[in-house]
Amino acid sequence: MFNYIWPIALVLISNTIYQIASKSVPGNMDAFASLTITYTVSAVFCLTMFFVTNKNSTLMAEYAKTNWAPFLLGIVIIGLEIGLIFAYRAGWPVSSASVVANTLVAIALIFVAAFVFKEQITMTKIAGIALCLGGLILINK
């Protein structure tokens, strides 16, 4: 059960801190300059964690296994980061910007899952979409 819960708990804690940090990036600092610091710290942390957690492989051996996904992920993460920084700078409240964005992502992923991964769109999922859209209306009033 712990292996099922801890990753979601980590996402919850990390995303909460992430939203606070994104909202707190100085408004007079260039957002891309801020992200160079963010990703330098991230790269150093990831490299350190690789060596701490991996005793059976080398970094080059792991790099040899790569495909297109890490490269695309590197690009789209910048979109996520810069999008939220600019949303906050545009005046979105921290209490709703992430909720709106993540709700819309959840709705989009229902359709991506159906068309790309052949998952079923059920009446329950359609009801969930309706509730999400209703929630967006309520949260932005």
Portion of residues in helices? over 70%
What structural class do you assign from the helix and strand content?
mainly alpha
Shape designation: globular
Query: Span between N and C termini?
Result: 38 Å
Strand content: under 5%
Describe, in plain words, how this protein is organized in 3D.
The chain is an all-alpha fold and 141 residues long. It has two domains: 1-93, no CATH class; 95-141. Helices cover 78% and strands 0% of the residues. α5 runs antiparallel to α6 (123-139). The longest helix is centred in the first third of the chain and has 23 residues, at 2-24. The chain is globular and about 50 Å long.
Descriptive tags:
single chain, 0% strand, 141 residues, mainly alpha
List the topology elements:
Layout: H1 2-24, H2 31-53, H3 59-63, H4 69-89, H5 97-117, H6 123-139
